[in-house]
Design goal:
mainly alpha; elongated; 389 residues; 3 strands
């Protein structure tokens, strides 16, 4: 008698019903998956999970799996189990798909998929970005790398990279602060890839990033001769934090924006003397303004008002292109303030422009006209209300 053919999603023969749950506890917007225990045994994780329940429960056994991975990639990995079960070679559409499957296969201990992923990646052409991602993944996953792939990457097949990275993360971040950006892209991808998958590394890295951020802010306040390097390092650190940890980003934004000693006269003078060199400062302020203007970080009215009034004199010293970039973002933050504070922000901006004999942009003129119209409208409303009383 021929062995029954098992097919992915065949509800009539399935003995396992799987529902994927996102890390926030919500069910993924996919239907339940109807699967087969014989196939799922290709994964050590599923074999262990289901073996404990197989004798005690009547099929189909219903299970819910919480995952940080996308549902489509998780499902693709399960579909590859069916290929593996029937002896077919595992196929991948492109390098990005293989890179996305690696952490899923590692998580569920689907060893055949790990081997095939590494074989495929060893034979494929990579872009620079894909190579960075691959190196980061291999360091974050507790797997032995295939000898051929390790040789191509020039690394050890035995994965001690994460422990080494965790021990040396502060040293690497310090190298960024001194202006050494040779490996900055690799370091960033390593940190991002490991942050969610390794809690001890995340905690180590969180402390190291905050320490390095504080050290660079201190350099900026102490009139460090290489202001540009300081703000370039701050921008890099902030961009990594923003990708990894929303709460830490909120913390460093508040630290930076509340520090009234940062936008001082010496920084103002340094920017005025070398306006074209302050791209990192513009990008950094742009990130903070965007976070405040779009309410990505919740702050008080006084916080936002003080931040704008403290930094406008610095913004005015920037070149015209940089000012235009920040103007729109500044207006978005100012729009969150009461009308009198908005008018005050405009007055400060105009006074600062006059110190450099500069003209108001059309963007700023349009904004203040809107503010003045709103003030007039409010006065009329209160006049009508008073007359009614």
């Amino acid at each position: 008698m021929a062995e029954e053919r098992l097919e992915f999603g065949d509800q009539s023969t399935a003995d396992v019903k799987l529902q994927l749950i996102s890390k926030d506890g919500a069910e993924h917007q996919v239907n339940s998956l109807y699967l087969h225990f014989q196939v799922l045994k290709k994964s050590e994780f599923f074999e262990t999970l289901l073996s404990q329940r197989w004798c005690a429960e009547k099929p189909p056994i219903e299970i819910k799996i919480t995952t940080t991975h996308s549902a489509s990639i998780y499902i693709k990995c399960i579909q590859l189990m069916y290929s593996s079960y029937t002896g077919k070679r595992l196929c991948f559409s492109h390098v990005w798909e293989a890179l996305a499957l690696l952490p899923v296969a590692s998580e569920i201990l689907f060893h055949h998929c790990l081997e095939e992923c590494m074989s495929y990646l060893n034979a494929a052409c990579w872009s620079t970005k894909q190579e960075v991602k691959l190196r980061a993944l291999l360091l974050s996953l507790e797997i032995n790398i295939s000898p051929d792939l390790a040789a191509r990457l020039g690394i050890s097949p035995h994965n001690w990279g994460l422990q080494m990275l965790e021990k040396s993360v502060q040293k690497m971040l310090s190298s960024i602060s001194t202006g050494s950006y040779t490996y900055s892209e690799y370091i960033e991808e390593y940190i991002v890839a490991h942050f969610e998958t390794n809690s001890s590394f995340a905690e180590t890295c969180r402390y190291a990033l905050l320490k390095e951020f504080s050290a660079n802010v201190k350099c900026a306040k102490s009139h460090h001769p290489a202001f540009v390097n300081v703000f370039a390092a701050l921008l890099w650190i902030v961009s990594v934090i923003q990708r990894c940890d929303g709460e830490l980003f909120e913390t460093i934004l508040q630290m930076f924006c509340e520090d009234a000693e940062l936008p001082n006269k010496k920084l103002c003078y340094a920017v005025s003397c070398s306006r074209d060199s302050y791209g990192p400062l513009v990008d950094l302020m742009g990130r903070f303004l965007t976070a405040l203007g779009k309410s990505l970080v919740i702050t008080s009215t006084l916080f936002r008002f003080s931040f704008l009034t403290n930094w406008i004199p610095i913004f005015i010293q920037l070149d015209q292109t940089s000012r235009c970039i920040l103007e729109r973002k500044l207006i978005d933050v100012a729009d969150t303030l009461p009308l009198p504070e908005q008018r005050h922000i405009y007055d400060i901006w105009i006074q600062a422009l006059e110190t450099r004999s500069l003209h108001t942009s059309k963007t700023m003129q349009g904004w203040v006209q809107k503010v003045e119209a709103a003030i007039v409208r409010d006065h009329k409303f209160f006049d009508i209300t008073d007359s009614m009383n």
